[in-house]
Design goal:
Elements: H1 2-20, E1 26-29, H2 36-50, E2 52-58, H3 62-74, E3 78-92, E4 97-110, H4 114-133
Parallel strand pairs: 1-2
Antiparallel strand pairs: 2-4, 3-4
Helix pairs in contact: 2-3
Pfam family, one: Alba
InterPro entries: Alba-like_dom_sf (IPR036882), DNA/RNA-bd_Alba-like (IPR002775), UCP030333_Alba (IPR014560)
Protein name: DNA/RNA-binding protein Alba-like domain-containing protein
Length: 134
């Protein structure tokens, strides 16, 4: 039984990586204790590289994704392009039956001012470093 479960998980991971390899700009937010701004800054980087970013999360992590999207929007960096919600079956080995989890995917695009705002923020950071050194 354990071997079969491991094999199923391995197949699932393989299938996931094939499906996701096309999405280089997807951030899957899990409920690990990474700080909120880790995701905010990662999303900014992805938008710089790909012009848009897809944030996705399951269950309890949905609140984090919504907060990240709101921070980026409120700072004038991102616009919502698409929001998709769905329910996915997650295999729960402890219960032996699939559990349904809510899923959200939010596609954000750069605003017109994105590059200007990012440049200004980078400049501020440089000035701060100069002051610390003197």
């Amino acid at each position: 039984l354990a071997m079969a479960a491991v094999q199923q998980i391995a197949e699932g991971v393989t299938n996931l990586s094939i499906a996701d390899s096309a999405k280089k700009n997807r951030i899957q937010v899990s409920n690990t204790k990474k700080p909120l701004f880790f995701y905010v800054n990662l999303a900014k980087r992805y938008m710089q590289q790909h012009n848009e970013v897809e944030l996705s999360a399951l269950g309890m992590a949905i609140a984090t994704v919504v907060t990240v999207a709101e921070i980026l929007k409120n700072n004038g960096l991102a616009v919502e392009k698409k929001i998709m919600t769905s329910t996915v079956d997650i295999k729960d080995d402890s219960r032996g039956r699939p559990v349904q989890k809510a899923k959200i995917e939010i596609l954000l695009g750069k605003t017109e001012n994105f590059d200007k705002l990012m440049a200004a923020a980078a400049e501020e950071a440089d000035v701060g470093e100069d002051q610390e050194q003197s």
